[in-house]
Amino acid sequence: MRLEGTAFGKRNAKRLRREMTPPEVALWLALRRHGGGLRFRRQYAAGDYILDFYCAPTRLAIEVDGEAHSRGDRPTQDAIRDTWLRDRGILVLRYPAVDVLNNLDGVIAQIMAIVIER
């Protein structure tokens, strides 16, 4: 099943690729270096959502969550989005931004273990 982004989502994804946060940039560079030959897309439009990173062959989405993801209605929005993706066979991995910055090797090791498993 292919995930199809809306026209607005695709424009928004393009803008977000230019405005990646430092943890997203660090993870992106590490995924490119250690991706096991798989192609990870960054700021990928899927339906009405933008995925921080997406690997189509493994149907894996990776989200880097800053502190805003724990405030207000964001946890509820994230849960709705994760359910939408899960219903389409996508596994969502969420990493706090601080973990990406402080333990990038550990995050990459976990991602690669899941990629191999899938």
Word description of this protein:
Helix content is 49%, strand content 21%. With 118 residues, it is an alpha+beta fold. The protein has a single domain (7-107), classed as 3-Layer(aba) Sandwich (Endonuclease, Chain A), CATH 3.40.960. It has a four-stranded mixed sheet, with helices on both faces. Helix 3 links the parallel strand 3 (60-65) and strand 4. Helix 2 crosses helix 5 (104-117). The longest helix has 14 residues, at 104-117. The chain is globular, with a radius of gyration of 13 Å. The mean pLDDT is 85.
Offer a quick outline of the entry.
By secondary structure, this protein is an alpha+beta fold.
Any key phrases for this structure?
5 helices
CATH superfamily: VSR Endonuclease
| 3D shape | globular
The chain-level structural class is: alpha+beta
Can you tell me the CATH architecture?
3-Layer(aba) Sandwich
Count the beta strands. Answer: 4
Helicity range:
40-55%
Protein name: Very-short-patch-repair endonuclease
Keywords: Endonuclease, Hydrolase, Nuclease
Pfam family, one: DUF559
Domain DUF559: 10-114
